[in-house]
């Protein structure tokens, strides 16, 4: 039995590269670019075409050469947006995940009115400062981060039980001492929105990122992350199936 193999690496690479960003609408209140790391994992599927029928029969007529030409289509469909932070294995590829939004034009911290994400933990829970929003801000030569933690006060070790689940909540208006401004002069680890606004309200936003990276304290898996929004701009994951390339006939 002999197979002829054909490479489609360039087409696949081009498709997977698209998984690092979302489709943006012109109507988005705050235009910007989304970057997902790691990107959505693609699932491959094949469809055998004539002369092999769907039920396994064939209209091929033997010509004495004992060779059956086979033609099939190869497609790739992106899976869900999954966040992982796994510390229990030796791999470094799954230690952290993030989804980052970079505004296209100057945006002040005071202009951020919405930071929202729908999440479902399928393993672990919030702890060690993750899940969180990390808002990178700049003023003059200073560039710092303001962290906004999900979960219960003051330890942020639970964001899954009903009383502490902030899935879908607007973290800007949620309230509580969950704003960590300790990187900023006169800042503190436990601050509220008003305190953060007083410190960095006039600073320019470099990017706003949703981050999961505390697997060192226990494995964390969120599957899926969805409806992630900054100021009305919602990340749109890839969907649908795309042919990887046109394959010539293979033979058995």
Give the CA-CA distance, first to last residue. Answer: 5 Å
**Gross morphology:** elongated
**Main sheet makeup:** 6 strands, antiparallel
β-strand percent reads 25-35%
Helical segment count: 2
Q: What letter string, H or E per element, gives the SSE order?
A: HEEEEEEEEEEHEEEEE
Radius of gyration: 24 Å
State the helicity in percent bands. under 10%
Q: Give the beta-strand count.
A: 15
Low-pLDDT residue intervals, each spanning 5 or more residues: 1-27
Briefly, what is this?
The chain has helices at 9-17, 193-200; strands at 32-37, 42-48, 69-70, 72-78, 83-85, 97-103, 115-123, 132-139, 142-149, 179-180, 204-212, 220-230, 233-234, 242-243, 250-251.
Structural account:
This protein has helices spanning 9-17, 193-200, and strands at residues 32-37, 42-48, 69-70, 72-78, 83-85, 97-103, 115-123, 132-139, 142-149, 179-180, 204-212, 220-230, 233-234, 242-243, 250-251. The chain folds into two domains: 1-80 and 237-252, no CATH class; 82-234, no CATH class. It has 252 residues and is mainly beta. The chain is built from two helices and 15 strands. A six-stranded antiparallel beta sheet has the order 1-6-11-8-9-10, with helices on one face. Strands 5, 7, 12 and 13 form a four-stranded antiparallel beta sheet that branches. It starts with 8 loop residues before the first helix and ends with a strand. Mean pLDDT is 83; it is low at 1-27.
């Amino acid at each position: 039995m002999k197979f002829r193999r054909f490479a489609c690496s360039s087409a696949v690479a081009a498709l997977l590269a698209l998984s690092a960003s979302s489709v943006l609408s012109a109507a988005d209140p705050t235009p910007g670019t989304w970057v997902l790391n790691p990107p959505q994992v693609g699932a491959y599927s094949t469809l055998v075409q004539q002369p092999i029928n769907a039920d396994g029969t064939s209209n091929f007529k033997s010509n004495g050469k004992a060779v059956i030409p086979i033609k099939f289509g190869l497609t790739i469909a992106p899976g869900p947006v999954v966040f992982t932070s796994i510390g229990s294995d030796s791999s470094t590829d799954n230690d952290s995940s993030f989804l980052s939004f970079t505004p296209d034009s100057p945006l002040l911290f005071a202009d951020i009115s919405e930071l929202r994400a729908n999440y479902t933990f399928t393993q672990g829970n919030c702890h060690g400062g993750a899940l969180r929003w990390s808002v990178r801000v700049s003023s003059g030569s200073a560039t710092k981060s303001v962290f906004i933690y999900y979960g219960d006060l003051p330890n942020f070790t639970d964001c899954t039980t009903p009383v502490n689940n902030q899935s879908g909540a607007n973290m800007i208006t949620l309230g509580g001492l969950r704003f960590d401004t300790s990187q900023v002069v006169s800042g503190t680890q436990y601050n509220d929105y008003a305190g953060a606004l007083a410190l960095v309200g006039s600073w320019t936003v470099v990017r706003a990122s949703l981050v999961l990276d505390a697997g060192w304290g226990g494995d964390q898996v969120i599957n899926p992350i969805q409806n992630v929004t900054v100021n009305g701009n919602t990340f749109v994951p890839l969907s649908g199936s795309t042919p990887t390339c046109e394959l010539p006939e293979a033979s058995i």
